[in-house]
């Protein structure tokens, strides 16, 4: 499997809110040129909740076609309707995704048994390797470690993106799957460095949208166990790790990528453009990371 810095790619949009396919190609090329280790297409940061089904399919397909097998592509296929998640996963497999990333079903708040049955149904419907995604801060449902461990026994469920930010809990899960092929990835940029040093295999990252080289270098150092170097890079990136969440993601990161001149400023309701009061915060974070000139 892959390891390192995996960008949770934004879906670029025009100021009218249409998907900007030319800019999407440009972003993929940007990440191929700047050491990103894998790409998530139409994950949470890619605004799948406001994409039509056709657009969701097309974003996944377009990224796969542009990457041309040079790095792994992980398709975002989460849904709070199990049948929809199955359909998205089957499509991703059909067009050549390497993995899928499936968030816990949001809003309907399933039980732990419901989560198990949801993912088991997806796994049985397709041979595509599945990465579980636990992000209780967005979904209002928390998949317990015990449920994750139960799901590790299901064929083709291969990894977890842990966006809880709870390092103690993450370390317990890393220890529990030690000696198996199941992998843990951070989904929380602010704690990713520490989790990788504890044994995680990388970071599925918002920050990588704007600082791909630095995120790659930080992950490489942490994976090698070079804590001093990893912390040095991570300290420089910390203003981005926090600044890109001053409002609901992907609002700040879309503004940041626009400030870098890579996309227009389109975003879809109910999300709105970054509030003016936060522009200096995000701009300063970009400058501190060396992404924009001061």
TrEMBL record:
Its EC number is 4.3.3.7. It comes from the Bacteria. Pathway: Amino-acid biosynthesis; L-lysine biosynthesis via DAP pathway; (S)-tetrahydrodipicolinate from L-aspartate: step 3/4. Pfam families: DHDPS. PROSITE patterns: DHDPS_2 (PS00666). Catalyzes the condensation of (S)-aspartate-beta-semialdehyde [(S)-ASA] and pyruvate to 4-hydroxy-tetrahydrodipicolinate (HTPA). Belongs to the DapA family. This is 4-hydroxy-tetrahydrodipicolinate synthase. It comes from Terasakiispira papahanaumokuakeensis. The gene is dapA.
């Amino acid at each position: 499997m892959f390891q390192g810095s995996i960008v949770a790619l934004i879906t670029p949009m025009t100021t009218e809110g249409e998907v900007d396919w030319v800019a999407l190609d440009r972003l993929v090329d940007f990440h191929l040129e700047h050491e990103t280790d894998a790409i998530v297409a139409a994950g949470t940061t890619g605004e799948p909740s406001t994409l039509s089904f056709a657009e969701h399919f097309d974003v996944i397909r377009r990224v796969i076609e542009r990457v041309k097998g040079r790095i792994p592509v992980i398709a975002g296929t989460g849904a709070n309707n199990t049948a929809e998640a199955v359909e998205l996963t089957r499509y991703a497999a059909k067009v050549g995704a390497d993995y899928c990333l499936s968030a816990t079903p949001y809003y309907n708040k399933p039980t732990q048994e419901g989560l198990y049955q949801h993912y088991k149904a997806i796994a049985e419907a397709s041979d595509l390797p599945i990465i579980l995604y636990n992000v209780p801060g967005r979904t209002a449902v928390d998949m317990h470690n015990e449920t994750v461990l139960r799901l590790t026994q299901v064929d083709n469920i291969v990894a977890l993106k842990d966006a809880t930010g709870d390092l103690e809990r993450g370390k317990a899960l890393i220890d529990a799957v030690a000696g198996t092929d199941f992998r843990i990835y951070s989904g929380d940029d602010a704690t990713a460095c520490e989790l990788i040093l504890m044994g995680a295999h990388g970071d599925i990252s918002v920050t990588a949208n704007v600082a791909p080289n630095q995120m790659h270098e930080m992950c490489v150092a942490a994976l090698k166990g070079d804590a001093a170097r990893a912390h040095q890079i991570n300290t420089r990136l910390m203003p981005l790790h926090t600044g890109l969440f001053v409002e609901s993601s992907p609002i700040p990161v879309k503004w940041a990528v626009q400030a870098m001149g890579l996309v227009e400023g389109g975003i879809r309701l109910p999300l709105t453009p970054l509030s003016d009061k936060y522009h200096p915060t995000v701009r300063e974070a970009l400058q501190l990371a060396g992404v924009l000139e001061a």
